[in-house]
From TrEMBL:
Pfam family, one: Cupin_2
GO terms for MF: metal ion binding
Keywords annotated in UniProt: Metal-binding
The protein, known as: Cupin
PANTHER family from the UniProt entry: OXALATE-BINDING PROTEIN (PTHR35848), SLL1358 PROTEIN (PTHR35848:SF9)
Organism listed in the record: Haloterrigena salina JCM 13891
Domain Cupin type-2 span(s) in chain numbering: 38-103
């Protein structure tokens, strides 16, 4: 067996994202779950767009700050120490609002680990 101890700040930041993203599951060589660390300053969002996944379940554990999540049913505030979960096909957009007092840091967990399956969601359609 091979075990891993990963410091989220040691991973290379993923380019082209609206906030700081580090892929922890890649660093730990995990294949059956996606684990990412996001750090978003005020005005930044975590995913690239308002979206949903056909198969993947997602959970966001808030390490610091307050995460805001837009859903078709309204906006949710997820305080430090809490978790937001989205089942497959549930549209959501996680972000840190412009008027936030500081950054928000979360660990995002998704299973099964799927790449590029985020389907854009347009609330007006």
């Amino acid at each position: 067996m091979e075990y891993s101890v990963i410091d989220p700040d040691d991973g290379e930041p993923v380019e082209g994202r609206p906030c700081d993203l580090r892929r922890l599951s890649d660093a730990a060589d995990l294949e059956n779950v996606a684990i990412n660390r996001f750090r978003a300053d005020p005005g930044e969002q975590l995913p690239l767009a308002y979206h949903y996944h056909e198969q993947q379940e997602e959970a966001f554990v808030v390490l610091s700050g307050t995460l805001h999540v837009e859903t078709p049913e309204g906006e949710l505030e997820v305080p430090e120490g809490s978790m937001f979960a989205a089942p497959p096909e549930a549209p959501h957009r996680a972000y840190n609002p412009e008027d936030a007092e500081g950054s928000v840091e979360v660990i995002a967990i998704g299973a099964p680990p799927v790449s590029d399956d985020a389907i854009p969601y347009e609330p007006d359609e």
